[in-house]
């Protein structure tokens, strides 16, 4: 799909699919095109080129059928401020075609799921941001949709609420197809089965959180803290090991030295063992293999010009 | 069937929104006060000594509506865009048309309610004399249709901006044109230099010209059609504007 705003390409040839049972994390810097993409999926704005189908329905040509399958939480979680929480949810249920008992039970279900009992009869206008956010979230799941599109679902929530919402998304992800965008990288680990990083409207990375982490320069590197030797001597010793590509001294004080050791390619996990075997005349205080960090991958991918200065050189 | 249910749901929500804010009550009170004041004090209802509502009552309606209807209509879309709920509304499984018609109907029904609440005037004139209630009825129908036309114009201006004040001002200006085009002093001014055909054409765009028939008790299909087509065209323009925003 492609989206132009004037002559600006907000979304530039994005193509991906999400299956039932998947939770897709949508990452990217501000202005990367995350919200625009979500608006196109939900049919709020039409794509300039390309096509999007939800459950087999084209979101432009069969808009109503496609929208029935989707629950959408827009950015900033808008809600009608002149209604009560219950009135708003009743409206959302009615417009989704629920009537009578099924409407009542749907409203009760989402009020329970989103912990809204305390504010049920309160006007949306008087709610705190967290409650307002969850009210809008509740409307997106009121018809138990197969597809959920959530634009920053944990934005503005306190840590407890974030935890609850993440748990909710993970549980629902077992039966639904969920796309959610976030700036919080730990959320990707906590919730996603797959993540896509987009930048300037293009996909720059696509994989499980594990796969993405391995793109990190640190992935497979070993962080080592030792005592009884100084930094340069340690460096020299480590460099003689055949599996070591390079080392960086992270910190050094009177009692210990911390270094990061980078492996040559295809050493796969043998690095830590090799280092442990080589420990003679110095004592290992701490030794662990880095898994790679998502925030570093994210920075490297989305800031190619400045990445070189913000990471350690080997 | 489904479309009607959707429109009904939207209309219900919008009507509820009017009555949970003070806007509805302020509007109704001001409208009724204006009607009472102009009918009995300025309009010279008693001095005329005739059992009729045409001149003292209905004559003022185009002017009341000029300010009051844009005040009712200005929030319809501007508020949705400002708060961002438009993104919710237009991603629900409803068409844009259903949303537009639902919102319009809610406001129109609300204006109808305000109009119905002027019933004490009708009771008064019936108590004092024996007016032609058929004429009064067509007057009310015309007045309601005229309010609908103004309201549909307010829908366009409300969809154009997220600022309610801007929406209000622009729709007042447009509605003013639709009044002045048939306002007798303006017509006389135009007759001085324009051909009769041109003056008639301009006047035929005026709500006053078309409201006149209703006030005389004539339900002319051309007048009804004028108001309905003005409403239809305005709502269509609203949908074009809304689509334009989303196309970016």
Task: Give me the strand/helix succession of chain B.
Answer: HHHHHHHHHHHHHH
Tell me the strand percentage band of chain A: 15-25%
Helix amount of chain A: 25-40%
Number of helices of chain B: 14
Q: Alpha-carbon distance between the termini of chain B?
A: 32 Å
Plain-language structure description:
Chain A is of the alpha/beta class and 314 residues long. Chain A is built from twelve helices and 14 strands. A six-stranded mixed beta sheet of chain A has the order 6-7-8-3-9-10, sandwiched between helices. Chain A has a four-stranded antiparallel beta sheet with strand order 12-13-11-14, with helices on one face. A two-stranded antiparallel sheet of chain A has the order 1-2. In chain A, strand 12 (244-252) and strand 13 form a beta hairpin. In chain A, helix 3 packs parallel to helix 5 (129-140). Chain A is elongated, with a radius of gyration of 25 Å. The two termini of chain A are 39 Å apart. Residues 306-314 of chain A have low confidence and may be disordered. Chain B has one domain (2-44, 54-247). The longest helix of chain B has 28 residues, at 133-160. Chain B starts with a helix and ends with a helix. The model of chain B has no long low-confidence stretch (mean pLDDT 89).
Topology record:
The complex is a heterodimer of chains A (314) and B (248).
Chain A: E1 2-5, E2 8-12, E3 23-27, H1 34-41, E4 53-54, E5 57-58, H2 63-69, E6 70-73, H3 85-95, H4 100-113, H5 129-140, E7 147-151, H6 159-172, E8 177-181, H7 185-191, E9 194-199, E10 202-207, H8 209-213, E11 222-227, H9 231-240, E12 244-252, E13 256-263, H10 270-278, E14 283-289, H11 294-302, H12 307-310
Parallel strand pairs in A: 3-8, 3-9, 6-7, 7-8
Antiparallel strand pairs in A: 1-2, 4-5, 9-10, 11-13, 11-14, 12-13
Helix pairs in contact in A: 3-4, 3-5
Chain B: H1 2-20, H2 22-42, H3 45-48, H4 61-73, H5 75-83, H6 85-89, H7 96-116, H8 119-128, H9 133-160, H10 164-180, H11 184-191, H12 196-203, H13 207-215, H14 221-247
């Amino acid at each position: 799909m492609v989206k132009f705003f004037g002559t600006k390409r907000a979304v530039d040839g994005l193509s991906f699919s999400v299956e039932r049972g998947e939770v897709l994390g949508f990452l990217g810097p501000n202005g990367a095109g995350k919200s625009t993409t979500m608006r196109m999926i939900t049919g709020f704005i039409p794509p300039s080129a390309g096509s999007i189908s939800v459950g087999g329905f084209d979101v432009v040509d069969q808009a109503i059928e496609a929208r029935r399958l989707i629950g959408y939480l827009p950015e900033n979680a808008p809600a009608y401020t002149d209604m009560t929480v219950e009135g708003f949810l009743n409206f959302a249920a009615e417009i989704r075609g629920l009537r009578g008992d099924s409407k009542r039970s749907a409203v009760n279900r989402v009020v329970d799921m989103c912990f809204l009992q305390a504010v049920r009869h309160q006007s949306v206008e008087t709610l705190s941001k967290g409650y307002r956010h969850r009210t809008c979230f509740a409307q997106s799941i009121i018809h138990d949709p197969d597809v959920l599109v959530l634009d920053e679902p944990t934005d503005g929530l306190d840590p407890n609420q974030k935890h609850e919402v993440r748990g909710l998304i993970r549980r629902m992800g077992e039966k639904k197809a969920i796309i959610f965008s976030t700036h919080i990288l730990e959320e990707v680990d906590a919730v996603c089965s797959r993540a896509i990083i987009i930048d300037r409207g293009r996909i720059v990375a696509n994989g499980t959180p594990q796969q993405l982490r391995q793109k990190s320069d640190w992935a497979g590197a070993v962080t080592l803290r030792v005592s009884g030797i100084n930094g340069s001597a340690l460096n020299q010793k480590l460099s003689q090991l055949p599996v070591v590509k390079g080392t960086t001294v992270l910190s050094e004080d009177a009692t210990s030295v911390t270094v990061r050791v980078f492996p040559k390619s295809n050493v796969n996990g043998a690095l830590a063992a090799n280092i442990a075997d080589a420990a003679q005349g110095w004592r290992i205080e701490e030794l662990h293999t880095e898994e790679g960090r998502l925030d570093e991958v994210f920075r490297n991918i989305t800031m190619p010009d400045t990445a070189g200065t913000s990471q350690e050189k080997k | 069937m489904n479309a009607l249910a959707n429109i009904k749901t939207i209309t219900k929500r919008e009507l509820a929104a009017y009555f949970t804010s003070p806007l509805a009550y302020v509007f109704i009170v001001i409208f009724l006060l204006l009607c009472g004041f102009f009918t009995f004090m300025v309009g010279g209802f008693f001095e005329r000594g005739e059992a009729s509502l045409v001149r003292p009552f209905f004559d003022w309606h185009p002017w009341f509506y000029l300010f009051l209807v844009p005040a009712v209509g200005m929030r319809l879309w501007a508020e949705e865009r400002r708060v961002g709920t438009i993104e919710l509304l237009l991603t629900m499984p409803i068409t844009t048309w259903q949303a537009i018609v639902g919102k319009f109907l809610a406001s129109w029904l609300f204006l109808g309610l305000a109009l119905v609440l002027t019933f004490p005037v009708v009771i008064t004139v019936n108590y004092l004399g024996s007016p032609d209630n058929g004429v009064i009825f067509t007057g009310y129908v015309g007045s309601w249709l005229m309010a609908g036309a103004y309201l549909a114009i307010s829908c366009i201006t409300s969809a154009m901006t997220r600022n309610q004040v801007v929406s209000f001002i622009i729709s007042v200006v447009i509605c003013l044109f639709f009044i002045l085009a048939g306002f007798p002093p303006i017509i006389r001014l135009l007759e001085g230099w324009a051909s009769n055909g041109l003056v008639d054409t301009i006047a035929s765009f005026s709500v006053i010209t078309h409201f006149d028939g209703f006030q005389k008790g004539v339900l002319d299909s051309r007048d009804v059609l004028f108001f309905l087509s003005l409403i239809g065209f305005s709502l269509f323009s609203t949908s074009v504007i809304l689509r334009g925003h989303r196309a970016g």
